[in-house]
Structures are given as structure tokens and as C-alpha cells.
Design goal:
The structure is a homodimer. By secondary structure, chain A is an alpha/beta fold. Chain A has two domains: 7-110 and 301-319, NAD(P)-binding Rossmann-like Domain (Rossmann fold), CATH 3.40.50.720; 115-292, Rossmann fold (3-Layer(aba) Sandwich). Chain A contains twelve helices and eleven strands. A six-stranded parallel β-sheet of chain A has the order 7-6-8-9-10-11. In chain A, strands 2-1-3-4-5 form a five-stranded parallel β-sheet, sandwiched between helices. In chain A, helix 5 (112-132) crosses helix 8 (170-180). The first copy, chain A, starts with 13 loop residues before the first strand and ends in a 12-residue tail after the last helix. The model of chain A is unreliable at 1-5 (pLDDT under 50). Chains A and B meet through helix 5, helix 6, helix 8 and helix 12 of A and helix 5, helix 6, helix 8 and helix 12 of B. Chains A, B: It comes from Rhodamnia argentea. Chains A, B: InterPro entries: D-isomer_2-hydroxyacid_DH, D-isomer_2_OHA_DH_cat_dom, D-isomer_DH_NAD-bd, NAD(P)-bd_dom_sf. Chains A, B: This is Glyoxylate/hydroxypyruvate reductase HPR3-like.
């Protein structure tokens, strides 16, 4: 740990850093320290609370790294009376008290822009994989079954399938663009109908599901979207329906999904996220119509580099009174 | 087997059927018999050769089903002096003596049009899978490794990658169109430069490989393309390069590919086809940077229905003196 800040810290703008203790920071920290005076409670022997209340009263910018593990709630924010900006390293913001930020006029910048292409690529990959049985086929070959059984079950064609996208944000809209090139038709649900979007809008997910062969979940997790895909939506999607989740595990009533997959009451699923990850329901491990993924949808070396650029870009823009590169619009 | 042809056979146009003996034909045969008088050597007690030479002298149309297993060579074609059309149920034509057909003016219709979308979808699926480690991640989760090891290796971003397509036919051009939507840049090799194609052309595969991160093989297998991806091309593609093969196994020098994969001299591979299918080299079964598939790229229930439509459409067009629906252009 670097407890001796470089001498020029006094003239650099202060940035408070919140991060999980297990996180190794080295390359990013070095890049940040070239521009900012980092205040990191984990570098201090003081308890975090007193570090915040004693040393961070004048701090205007907060950086949260790997933020789903570090809640940014009213209790924390009340200790930071000068705060004007929160920069998070994730696309999701379920750990940030957004209504509180709106009330206090604290701007929030997230990292969707760095992650959305990888997320969309991965959503499409899992969708084709479930439909065409790619990883199932890989298991079949690796197990030596091909020369013995010869016949491997056919999957389904992508072209002409109706894909319902839940959450047409940056990942959702890029997923839609890709799927159009496969001949899929697109419809979507989001909090509000979006202007200038060519796809049909459904005001609720149940109706979207009733008119879709495949649902792709890429909305934020909020109290309003927790278990947004439950019994009703799964019934509407029907026996042959497929669910792809690159959002958050708790968007889906996982118990209900597992029950339906086991009973053949839903066609298949591609899941990058789970309600209690890294715990994955045991029943899923034996099913051939699911593709399971260790929360890697948005993660590539390229996206991790891009998120660092974006974090530094947002902080520099803020301290130069320039527009933020990825301001989250409060609704 | 239906050895009693329906009474109206006398007035229906004759179509000679060549098929592997193991093939169960029922739904297609019933549909064909509504329009054509099928002559099937496997329905006869005569040896195939005498069936052809005695009963098929006036046959103008030949239908080959699951044709890679039924060679249509000069020996067979010499027995059919009236032949004007060969319809095959596959995209590949390596089992048909095309130079002989050209000399005799026999038209050939293939089934690419029914298969190309599924083939392109699958090529893209395997490409993303290798790059983003989708089926590797699925194995990791199924093995219960996620809660234990936590860290799963990152894959690579698709956007910005240079994809070289070997064979810009119907599957290749549809693969290119899809990959553009992921932000990949496309270049291609084929026998000749294609007019009206926006992608850079390389006259040889070695140069294409030297300028690509990923090679996608979807050309026909001919004497000219056997082992078109050998040592030189793999060296040019380089250590991080990826090979996707949805064409035929023998397009690649498989021994060389396996050797390089094992030694880490090539980045990864997605293989739907193999030199001695269904035999897959044992060394591949343990590698995490390969995706293995039991020759299913073009196969969905939808494509199998489409190929039946296309076969019947071609035969009906021929006997009505209308343009064939999928005439193969001799070069």
C-alpha cells in the first residue's frame, strides 16, 4: 500500500476511492495518481467512517470500483457534504442511492459506454448458443459421443425469431442491432417508450413475452425490476420460449425459472448472472438447454482498458468544468 | 419401401434418386411422389449399375440426397445419356464431377440457399464462442469451479477484430454481414475478386491470414482448396490467430492445426467439420481454446424444411422449362 502520497498531492484535486478490500489496484491506481490526490480509506489505519467524516469533508468526487460490493447509500453520502460527483466502474447502479443523489444534485457517471459492446456480443452469443446448441454440441463431441450416437439433436434457426428486449439501454440497443443482422425481429420494453427507435414498444414485460420467442434481459436492477420475469411472464413466453439474462440475476425469479426448465415448461436459458452468484442452482448443471456463464458478459481486456479510460476521462472532465463523458440521466 | 408406384407414375416426369441406403426418406419421398415418378435403385432387386443402365436411359433429372456419401462421378453419369439436371441436397459439391457436368452441359442445382443463413449464424456463434470463451465458461460453471476458483480467464473483444473470410459465397457473405454488426472489419479470399463487394480482396489465403486476426473457412472443398489452410497460412495468421471452419474438414491441414493448438502456436479454433468425421483428434478434446461441433452448422428443422422446398422447386422448375431456383454457375 502506498501510504506516502507523492509530493504534488497537495495541488492535485482530491478523489475519494471506495473499493472492496480484496481488489488489487495497481495499474489503475498509478494512472489515477498522476492526475488526482487519491483518498483511500483502506490505506488508512482509521475506521472507514471516521476517515470519511474527518478527511473527506471537502471531497467533491467519489470513485467506486467494483461497486456492486460497495454500497453507496445515504449513510455514506451524509458524511460527504461537498460531494458533487460519483463515478462508478460498473454499468449497473443498484448499489447507488440514486434518489438521494438526485435530491442532493450529485451527478453520477457510470461505465456502460465501456461495456455495452461486449455485453451485447455476449448476449447474442448466448442466444445463438441456446438456439443452436453450440456448447451442448461441444460437450457431445468432447464426451466422445459423436462416433457412437451419430445423431445430435437439431437446434432452431435464428432467422424470423421474435426477440423481446427488456431494457433498451446501451447494451439492449446494441444487442438489437446485432440481432437484426441475423434476421430476427425486435420489440422492447423499458420504463418509457423511446423516441426514434424503430422497434415496437410494449409497456409491460408480460405483453412483450406473449409476443416473443426469446426474451433478452439487459435492464438495470431496481426495486421496480426485481423479479420482473416471474411466473406470469414465463407463462406468457411459453413452452418453447428462451430467456437470456446479461443484466442481474435478481431480474428473474430464479426458483421459478429452474422449476420450469426442469419440467420442460420453458424452452431454454442463457444465464450470465444468478441470484446468489457465484452459486448456481444445482438443477441447472445437468440441463442441456441452458448455457451457464460466470458473469463475464461485459469483461474483456479491451473493455477493462476502456473503463479505466472512461473513469479518468470523467474525473478530468469534472475538474476541468467540461461535460462528463458518461453522465447518468436521473429520471 | 414403396415398390408399387402410384398409378399416375406413367404420366409424371421421371427423377432418378441416389441416396445412402441408411437414409429414411419418408416425408420427402411422399412429397416428391406427388409430382414425380421416382426411380430409386435401392427399391429394386437389381444391382445399381444395371438398374441405371437398363431403366434410366431416358432420365433427364437426378436427385442426390445426403450426397457427400454418394459420389456422382463419370462412371455413374456415363450410364445416364439423357441427363440434363442434377439436384443435390447439400451446399458442398465435392462429390459431383463438375468438370464432367460442364462438358456434357448438365445443369447442377445445390442447396446453399436453404442452408446459408444457418451456416452463417453458426460460424458467428463459434467465432464469438472462441473469442469470449462461452462454452469454456459453461464447462467452468458446470464443473462447480466458479465458487472455488472465482477467477475465469477473460476472452477477447470482437469489435475491431479483422476477420478474413475464405470463400465469399452465400455462407461467407452472410457471415460477413453479421460480423459487420459486431464492429469487425472484413476482408476475403475467393477464386476471383467479386464485383460489388465492399470488402478488401486478397488473391491468396496467406496474405489474407497475415492481415487477419480470425480466419473463417466457408469455401467449397475442391482439389484446389484441399489443405488450403496449412503450415504457411497458420504461420501468417500467427500465435493469437483464430480459425473457424464451417466448410469441410479437409480445407485445413488438421494435424498441423492440432500440433499448433497444443503448442500454443495459434490462438484458438471453432471446428464444425473434421478431416475424418465423426472422428475428432483426441488432443482437441482437452483444449479450452477450441469449440468442437458435430457438423451441425447448417442444420435446423427450418433449414431441412427449406431444402425440401428447394429440391422440389428446382425439379418442378426444370420440368416446366422455368429458371432453376439455385443453379450452380460453372466457372
Amino acid at each position: 500500500m502506498d501510504t506516502n502520497p507523492p509530493q504534488n498531492d497537495a495541488v492535485l484535486p482530491k478523489v475519494l476511492l471506495l473499493r472492496p478490500s480484496a481488489l488489487t489496484l495497481l495499474p489503475l491506481a498509478a494512472r489515477l495518481r498522476a492526475h488526482f490526490h487519491l483518498l483511500d480509506p483502506l490505506d488508512s489505519s482509521e475506521p472507514a467512517q471516521s476517515f470519511l467524516s474527518l478527511r473527506c469533508r471537502s471531497v467533491r468526487a467519489l470513485l467506486c470500483l467494483f461497486t456492486p460490493f460497495v454500497p453507496v447509500n445515504a449513510g455514506t453520502l451524509d458524511l460527504l457534504p461537498s460531494l458533487e460527483l460519483i463515478v462508478v466502474s460498473s454499468a449497473g447502479l443498484e448499489h447507488v442511492d440514486l434518489p438521494y443523489c438526485r435530491r442532493r444534485g450529485i451527478a453520477v457517471a457510470n461505465a456502460s459506454a465501456a461495456f455495452c459492446e461486449d455485453g451485447a456480443d455476449y448476449a447474442v452469443a448466448m442466444l445463438i448458443d441456446v438456439m443452436r446448441r453450440v456448447s451442448h454440441g461441444d460437450r457431445f463431441v468432447r464426451a466422445g459421443s459423436w462416433p457412437v450416437q451419430r445423431e445430435f439433436p437439431l437446434g432452431f434457426k435464428l432467422g424470423g425469431k421474435r426477440v423481446g428486449i427488456v431494457g433498451l439501454g446501451s447494451i439492449g440497443s446494441k444487442t438489437a442491432k446485432r440481432l437484426v443482422s441475423f434476421g430476427c425481429s425486435i420489440a422492447y420494453n423499458s420504463r418509457k417508450e423511446k423516441p426514434h427507435v424503430p422497434y415496437p414498444y410494449y409497456a409491460n414485460v408480460r405483453d412483450l413475452a406473449a409476443n416473443s420467442d426469446i426474451l433478452v434481459l439487459c435492464c438495470a436492477l431496481t426495486e421496480g425490476t426485481r423479479h420482473i420475469v416471474g411466473k406470469d411472464v414465463m407463462s406468457a413466453l411459453g413452452k418453447g420460449g428462451v430467456i437470456i439474462n446479461v443484466g442481474r440475476g435478481a431480474l428473474v425469479d430464479e426458483k421459478e425459472l429452474v422449476r420450469r426448465l426442469v419440467r420442460g415448461e420453458i424452452g431454454g436459458a442463457g444465464l450470465d448472472v444468478f441470484e446468489k452468484e457465484p452459486k448456481v442452482p444445482d438443477e441447472l448443471l445437468a440441463l442441456d438447454n441452458v448455457v451457464l456463464s460466470p458473469h463475464r458478459a461485459v469483461m474483456t481486456p479491451e473493455s477493462l482498458e476502456a473503463v479505466q479510460e472512461l473513469i479518468i476521462g470523467n474525473l478530468r472532465a469534472f475538474f476541468s468544468n467540461e461535460p462528463l463523458r458518461s453522465l447518468v440521466q436521473h429520471e
